[in-house]
Amino acid sequence: MTLDQLGEKIGIAGSQLSLMENGRREPRLTLLSSIAASVGVQLSDLLDEAPPSKRAALEIELDRAQHSSVYASLGLPSIRPAKGTSDETLEALVGLHHELARRAREAIATPEEARRANTELRQHMRTLDNFLPEIEVVAEKLLADVGHTTGALTHRSVSRIAEKLGFELVHVHDLPHSARSVTDLENGRIYLPPASIPGGHGLRGMALQAMAHRVLGHETPVTYADFLQQRLEINYFAAAVLMPQRQSVEFLSQAKADRNIAVEDFRDAFGVTHEAAALRFTNLATRHLDLEVHFLRVGDDGAVSKAYELRLPVDVTGSTEGQFVCRHWSARTAFTRTNRTTEFYQYTDTPEGTFFDSTQTGTTAAEEFSITIGVPFSHSKWFRGRETSNRTVSTCPDENCCRRPESGLAERWTGKAWSSAKLHAHILSPLPSGTFPGVDDRELYEFLEAHSAKEV
Fold this sequence. Notes:
Helix content: 40-55%
Structural class: alpha+beta
Number of helices: 19
Largest sheet: 6 strands, mixed
CATH topology of the largest domain: Arc Repressor Mutant, subunit A
CATH class of the largest domain: Mainly Alpha
Strand content: 5-15%
């Protein structure tokens, strides 16, 4: 049936139908009903987004691909499939477009792109007070579904949450080297290591992070910014489940009323790591406690690896990761003390004002690190350790503050020493590629295939 013949049946010009067919005009529902009746199908068939055939799916996908910015940048003409165009030809063209898009995504995922995306995300979270209410609601509902009301979340409760979502938690010894966990969507399994990873949420957190992708409706990340956003959201979700909003706010509000806020108490109350508790504190402190806070994770060399900033060193792109904090900040002075079992407290006078910081140090297999939570001087009255006599002065980014050697030392040793610098592997490494950045697709799929066969 031609468009003119169909138009005659339903009382509309064939040219008008052509505009609708090509997406240039929206048809009314009454017109769609007339079309459905004329061609002998249900109205729901016309409204169904699923292509009616494999051929139609290929034609639609090719059309969308040729309208993408990647293809448009090539300046090549579009191809309109004809009746004589074989399915194999369409599959080849669509496959080429997929590969073109994949290579474009890899090309954009440079270290510079990653740093820019991470900086933009951090700045955006500052405008939100690092608080995501929609994820809080999701977390609270899941906890209510399994009957968790108080205290630290148990492994059993985590397993019950997984069951509610249709997953089974499976602990294995052969996870892909590049993955912390693997989710088998086809068979409903979440594969986890047999023991906790030092410095993380532990097995509970890893399981919750894996579930978060499903709970939050994540799709395969298209850009590195998507990947970073998803990583932030799954970490936030895990923390919101391990340290529920209502219980956490009640605990911290009481601590503020007692003028005794301490991350170590918050950590112990919910059975999590110091870093997890400190990060969760940044989610809740501004919105619920009216406190301005900053967070730092710093290596023993002084380099920032993670931050939620109020005052931080940045490079010309605005990125803080990899930058070095002042030697006089508590994030670094805490490494010099002998007793590291409790938090270290310090006031620091800076060009932006005086800040109170609470720092806890820790150790991984690779390095020592410090976790710092800080507030402006006016907010220190709510924190444990405010009576400390530790006080330093930082004039950074002035190079004379802590980076340039004293003149006497410089005169003594300039030209008389040579040091072989460490070369960090990441300096020469390209940003990891793959469907999920950093994950070896081949190793991942071989792992899934092997364990799927075992279960059968």
